[in-house]
Amino acid sequence: VERLCQRRTDPVTGERYHATFRPAPTPEIQARLRQNPRDKEENIEKLMDIYSRNVQDLQDFYQDAFYVNADQDPHTVFEFIESCIINPIPCKK
């Protein structure tokens, strides 16, 4: 929730910033940043609630799916997905 709530966009350049991880480089840019209404905390919490209520049904439906740890560099994630497609892990039946 924190990561999503702190996203901002510069309406002049379209550049995206994050209050903690990638702050605007100057006070001038900081002053003109805007938050997307979808990134407000109450909206994100609603989406997280919907996700929590439906995640088990999705896991049951997609039993043959594999878990991807996307908290890595993009090349590593790509190689993992590619290896799962080329050499799929045998599934339990």
TrEMBL record:
GO terms assigned for molecular function: AMP kinase activity
KW Kinase (keyword) present: yes
Keyword Membrane: no
Domain of life (superkingdom): Eukaryota
InterPro entries xref list: ADK_active_lid_dom_sf (IPR036193), P-loop_NTPase (IPR027417)
Entry keywords, A to Z: Kinase, Transferase
UniProt record similarity statement: Belongs to the adenylate kinase family.
Protein name (database record): KAD8 kinase
Source species: Rhinopomastus cyanomelas (Common scimitarbill)
Gene (name only): Ak8_1
